Amino acid sequence: MKKYIKTVLTGIMAASVLFACSKDFLDYEPEGVLSNENVATAENAEALVVAAYAGIANDDMVGPLTSMWVYGSVRSDDAYKGGGGRGDVDVVDRYEQYNLTIADDPLDWMAPRTWTNYYAAISRANFALDVINQIPDADYADKTTRQAELRFLRAHSHFVLKLLFKKIPYITEGLTQEEILQISNVIDNDALWDKIADDFLFAFNNLPQAQDQVGRADRNAAAAYLAKLRLYQAYEQNDTHQVTNINLSRLQEVIDYADEVTGALESDYGNNFLDGFDNGPESIWAAQFSINDGTTVGRVSFVTGLNSPHGTGLYGCCGFHLASQNMVNAFKTDPVTGLPQLDTFNNTNIFNVVNSNGETPLAAGITLDPRIDHTVGIPGRPFKYRNTVKTSGDMIYKFSWARDPGVYGYFGNMKEQQAPDCTCYVKEGPFVGTSKNIEFIRYADVLLFKAEALIQLSQVDAGITIINQIRTRAAASTQRQIDAGASNVYNVGYYPMGMSKADAFKALMFERRLEFGMEGPRFFDLVRWGMAEQVLNAYLAVEKTRRDFLANAQFTAGRDEYYPIPQREIDFTGGLYDQNPGY
Length: 583
Fold this sequence. Notes:
about 10% strand; membrane; globular; mainly alpha; 14 strands; two-stranded antiparallel sheet; about 575 residues
């Protein structure tokens, strides 16, 4: 949608006069000088659809919609909060410590803002649907297609909200404010999944396989989302979030919808995280951003604006979202087989000793999955595949780039960063925004959704074949790092056929972590599998011996799988909404 955004940005701005911010999403009614009757034209409808697309990416550092670095990465075993100590953006410290125990905590301002931002996006989609539904079919050739796009956007928003809060009201078009106030968040978990699926199914049945304008939702994206949704739905949860059953028919749907998705892996894993490769063959559904598009600052994303390496003289600030020692250790491979050390990877640390040159040498005999040098900034190793940049000097990652190594260590994040001479940047004070897309689903996701379903259905060899396909791409993704001066210690092997179902599923879980490290899905994977308490408390038991700030962290099963329903929403509905358990 890069080119598309540039040509319709004026439409977004024109449509935006129809929307007003409000204190509460239930009080959010698009307002403006036009009534529904005289706005119901095909031309105005097109602008409203574009405004709905803008809504799913209208986020910021403290109300994220597009990046799950807080909710899915720091909340898991992948990363630490980082920044200038525990008090710096302390709400994320509370999330990381699993220390959010009351629903009306005044210090919790981030997740409630995400709630509001997503329901604002839903309101945009519903308002556009209300308008489009009034237009006669003969007057609007693209009517059904646009309705399908809007229902896709609405489903996407509800899907993410469900991952975060579980019990949410499902808001559709055609409702008055009074009717919306009567919609409860108390609904059977399976039925709520089906409501979201109905919107994706409408999109799947009414959208073309691909759109002429890049960035619009299409049948391919709808199929991918249906595979993802049915995978989550297959792991049936009780009222305290524990997995009680795995629905085999849902798993077969995962396979069926995954088979409807067309796509390909990027030839190099790093392409997914570099400016210039947006909307490539692996991109299935992404938040679209732009720069130099004729507007003053462009439509760039600041959602990860806190996360640049700190004190470099090359970036801005503020040193948030740092890889955990556990995450770094996970990239070790067996020197003989090249396979991950599934059970023993965390027994010893790698890159944990800084020498007099501020480097972290790798002990002899250790081999690595090359995805580590696409994911983590490590002192002494090239950052973003660069020894130097045109104007800014040395790009070897340095110990001094860590803002508070005594608390959070010194491993950086790389995927969400670009080289500092990138034309994709806008800098506002110390914060960097970028026009790089943020992926919601890439083709590697779809492949591993299918592999997971196959393994759970005891079609183990078929699932392992897909995992090995992902590993083949990883093995081929080394040249950029080597050219930039990384020592060639890469070794990627392949899982054998004939593995047990239990071992294959363990391999699947580990492969998802390596492939999507620090991209945000890790916490939600653990909750889906019913393994959050087991994995995260085991992680904390070891990690708190390495990082004192985690000394009192503890995950509580039956509570910490989801965020509390914002108390202001419960109050606004007069107590109609039920709170999640444990809060």
